[in-house]
């Protein structure tokens, strides 16, 4: 999911360089939403792992 967020961020940068403001704004918005979802799922996974009491693999 983080890869998708980075992909949309790169698309937004390229679109902004070429002057496509609408596409750049939409891609940046999508990247932000995907990153927030990724961060929330990451925190949930950390909490679930901590509550189970198992140590993460090294």
UniProtKB/TrEMBL annotation:
Keywords: Cell membrane, Membrane, Transmembrane, Transmembrane helix. The chain crosses the membrane at residues 29-51. Pfam families: DUF1328. Belongs to the UPF0391 family. Its main location: membrane. InterPro entries: DUF1328. It is found in: Cell membrane. It is a single-pass membrane protein. It comes from Paralimibaculum aggregatum. This is UPF0391 membrane protein LNKW23_34650.
